Amino acid sequence: MNVSDPSINIETPEEMPEAARLVLENTGTNRVIAIYGEMGAGKTTLVRHICELLKVSDPVSSPTFSIVNEYLTSDGDTIYHFDFYRINRISEAYDLGYENYFFSGHFCFIEWPEKIASLLDFPHLKIRITVSGKKRIVTLHS
What we know:
Layout: E1 7-10, H1 16-25, E2 32-37, H2 43-53, E3 68-72, E4 78-83, H3 91-96, H4 98-102, E5 107-111, E6 125-132, E7 135-141
Parallel strand pairs: 2-5, 2-6, 4-5
Antiparallel strand pairs: 1-7, 3-4, 6-7
Helix pairs in contact: 1-2
């Protein structure tokens, strides 16, 4: 994958780890990664595989009810994983103290970022997962 072709085609679930590797290689200095996609597109699965590459030993799961999960890597680094699907007002992200996470310098993976779009007014990586039959297309935008 390169800048002129920021898409990764995933034909089978076995290809998701390679997609995660390509995403990680293309994060640059971005530590906030917004992941867009419909329900069941594979957002959490992609985060799980990226976390494996970052040496997270904790179980990686969707933070649908907790809004944020915190994972530790074997190197002692912290990774944050957000799911804003269930928030109803932007004030809920303020109450969570989102800026302490987003500006921490740690990786922050955000599912359902469209719910907090006004808070993402700084450089970050955008990933869109599109479902076409059984195939997934992962597209990166900086």
